[in-house]
Amino acid sequence: MVRLSKELEAAIGRLFENKEIGYRALGVTHSEEMNALGLRTERSVPENVSAEERISLLRRKLEDWVELKSAEIQEYDSVEDTTRIRAEALSTLMFLRDLNQYFPRVQTATREAFKKHRRSL
Fold first, then answer.
1. What's the pLDDT tens digit per position in 44-57?
2. DSSP structural state of residue 73
3. Lowest CB count within 10 Å: 47, 62, 99, 107, which one?
């Protein structure tokens, strides 16, 4: 279950006329909708996984996403798409910066460790 603070709930309401857009980005969806689309949500990381390992795995996921954006930008020619892709990558890079600020000793998980983790979700 995703827990939303009152502040986040209010911010989503100010950002989106249809709050469902923000909720879906957070993974808050009705299971009937997901089932109808043939999709499923991932389970949460098991609680017995240490906080450092969780952060390490999250770093891998985010770094892989930035790498995907770097490949995606090669596919688009329009200024709008390039701007969007760079903005998405920048927001992720800023989050990685913040992770490093709060957890400076945590290294990024290997791709092999991340693949093993993904199979358990």
1. 788 888 999 999 99
2. G
3. 47
Residue 50: its H or E element: none
Exposed / middle / buried, residue 32 (Cβ in 10 Å: 0-12, 13-18, 19+): exposed
d(CA 56, CA 108): 5
Indicate the domain borders of the chain: 4-117
pTM: 0.78
User: Rounded to whole angstroms, how far apart are CA atoms 17 and 54?
Assistant: 33
Which residues fall within 8 angstroms of residue 23, CB to CB, at 6 or more apart? Answer: 12, 29
